[in-house]
Amino acid sequence: MTSDTVSSFGQMALNIPLLKALDDVGYENPSPIQARTIPLLLEGRDVLGQAQTGTGKTAAFALPLLSNLDLKEKDPQVLVLAPTRELAIQVAEAFQKYASHMKGFHVLPVYGGQEYGGQIRALKRGVHVIVGTPGRVMDHIRKGTLKLGNLKALVLDEADEMLRMGFIDDVEWILDQTPEDRQIALFSATMPQQIRRIATKYLNDPEQITIEVKTATADTIRQRFWPVSGVHKLDALTRILEAEPFDAMIIFVRTKTATVELADKLEARGYSAAPINGDIQQKLRERTIEQLKKGKIDILVATDVAARGLDVQRISHVFNYDIPYDTEAYIHRIGRTGRAGRKGDAILFVAPREKRLLHSIEKATRQKIEMMELPSTEIINDKRIAKFKQRISDTLASEELGMFYQMIEQYQLEHNIPALEIAAALAHILQGDEPFLLQNKPQRSKGRDRESWDKEDGSQKRNSSRRDRDRGRDRSSRKDSGPEDGMERFKLAVGHNHEVRPGNIVGAIANEAGIDSQYIGRINIHDEYTMIDLPADMPKEVFNDLKKVWVAGQQLKISKMGEDSHSDERKPRYDKKGKSGKNSSDKKRSEKPRDGKAKPKKDKKKKAKIRAKDKKAKGKRKTDDSKPKKRVKKKPD
Ligand code: AMP
């Protein structure tokens, strides 16, 4: 199916409260993965979807599964397994958002590092949808606090990530605990052999969904991207608009609401911009396009649907403010410029999590999309000055200024002030409180976007299995000279005989105990047990939690290996809540796995995150923070 032929949400058998919620969030039409997956899941079919973040896959499973829920039943009906707590929270939020008109609906995110008490209470009260990381979900099943007897559907989200993090045994164990007749949707960006094996073993005659891609892009179009996270997009856009010479531009966003909001913001910044989306009446849309053709409007902020087939010669630039769902949508979008052999420019904003989509676009179009240079402060300021001067010249040339002449002359005589000073005061009035020039220091946000991109990109280049191997080597091949300062050695009841790999251990400890994986030190795997270095003075709570974590089918049963002999000064200190205030020494930072896999843990309740105080570590954490933070605002109960 192509994005030209996608059906509307209204045509799907989704329930009314969901359609209302979709209207609230402003989704105009289903994305390709949604158009294909929703009808199948509504029918109760199993689905094997090859999709990545940014394609709209969350709604692709959340909407039909919500539509099929029986809200009167209190036992969990849907279980979503996700590799990280961040994703679990994000998916739970999405369920909450789409179910906003479904009275009495409850979703519960469950992940390691969080108190059991609250989760158990919520589970007792009744929850329709659980979204969790495998380890914690397993724990609840074993404790008997999560009962899956009534489960109707199971989703494996980002299955290849779960495989990479060493959770696949846990996932299989969970799959074995679910009723035979449950429906399964498995989503994965890639389909390694182990994921295919799981699909074959557990899915019932699944429909496989991969979206066909068109590969033709005009080579007269220069394609560039800029790495940016949500909050900095508007800043970056206005900076580019100021420096990039363009005739007319079409800016693509994902939702109807966003077309209006962004057009308003651009208008407020002095651009002649207008929105077009599927909700705007045909007549008005035509009028807007006419205005664009005639040069009365320079920027059109559009959704994919509204801009389909648009052919306006003036469009020199296509701006992908929100990344398209897939390569095909990208090709449609940028085809609005560079028409009939003319030159055109396409610019794409890419958030760190959307990198894979960028790579697929490059692969499918067989064209490299270069990282653009954001115009420097000097260039922007020169442009502002030139524009200001031009406005003066234009006004002097074309406006009738008689009355102002008189007034200024009068003022000059009354106050004996030179005309130059009066002109400067008037310019100040015109400018208002907004500074006229950009600050000379580089804007941190933008640097940060790029910095974190570069950092992540380095790690992206290595393939995942290699990453796991590297991590294993990094952590296990150093000569054993006892734990480093601030670290303590522990023993885990899992070893080679259980087929454990370092990646399994790091993944489980990072996720379940909330210890940032960069603070997990050397790992030495023996046949029956493993020795591992972790930050010293681990809070009892975390320690007890870790005992119960399952890896490769074994409980870790963590225990201390002898006394710590290091000076107090070097030890990271945990406060009562389990946090540590000790600085992270350079030594410790060198323990960081070189695969860049370490995911920042942002949960406030996280028990053992070390607060690195030295400047370098601060800088580093800042780049990590550029990842979008998502929270379930209100913990559903
Ligand atoms: P996902 O791939 O599920 O992470 O979704 C990526 C983004 O696309 C999220 O911000 C969603 O809110 C947004 N999104 C999902 N479906 C649609 C749709 N049909 N129309 C517009 N935006 C959507």
How would you briefly describe this protein structure?
With 637 residues, the protein is α/β, with parallel strands linked by helices. It contains 24 helices and 20 strands.
Outline the secondary-structure elements.
Layout: H1 16-25, H2 32-42, E1 47-50, H3 57-67, E2 78-81, H4 85-98, E3 107-110, H5 116-125, E4 129-132, H6 134-143, E5 153-156, H7 159-164, H8 168-176, E6 183-188, H9 193-202, E7 207-209, E8 221-227, H10 233-243, E9 248-252, H11 256-268, E10 273-276, H12 282-294, E11 299-302, H13 304-307, E12 315-320, H14 327-334, E13 344-350, H15 355-365, E14 370-371, H16 377-398, H17 402-415, H18 419-431, H19 444-460, H20 464-476, E15 487-492, H21 502-513, E16 523-525, E17 530-535, H22 540-548, E18 550-551, E19 554-555, E20 559-560, H23 586-589, H24 615-625
Parallel strand pairs: 1-6, 1-7, 2-4, 2-5, 3-4, 5-6, 8-13, 8-14, 9-11, 9-12, 10-11, 12-13
Antiparallel strand pairs: 15-17, 15-20, 16-17, 18-19
Helix pairs in contact: 2-3, 3-4, 6-8
The structure holds adenosine monophosphate.
Q: Which features does this protein show?
A:
637 residues; alpha/beta; Rossmann fold; 4 domains; seven-stranded parallel sheet; 24 helices; disordered C terminus; binds adenosine monophosphate
Bound molecules: adenosine monophosphate
Question: What does the largest sheet look like?
Answer: 7 strands, parallel
What structural class do you assign from the helix and strand content?
alpha/beta
CATH topology of the largest domain: Rossmann fold
Task: Give the CATH architecture of the largest domain.
Answer: 3-Layer(aba) Sandwich
As residue ranges, the low-confidence spans are 1-6, 441-448, 456-479, 563-637
Number of domains: 4
E-strand count: 20
Q: What is the topology, as strand order, of the major beta sheet? A: 3-4-2-5-6-1-7
* Portion in strands: 5-15%
Task: Tell me, rounded to a whole number, the average pLDDT.
Answer: 78
Distance linking N and C termini = 40 Å
Helices, by number, come to 24
The helix content, as a percent range, equals 40-55%
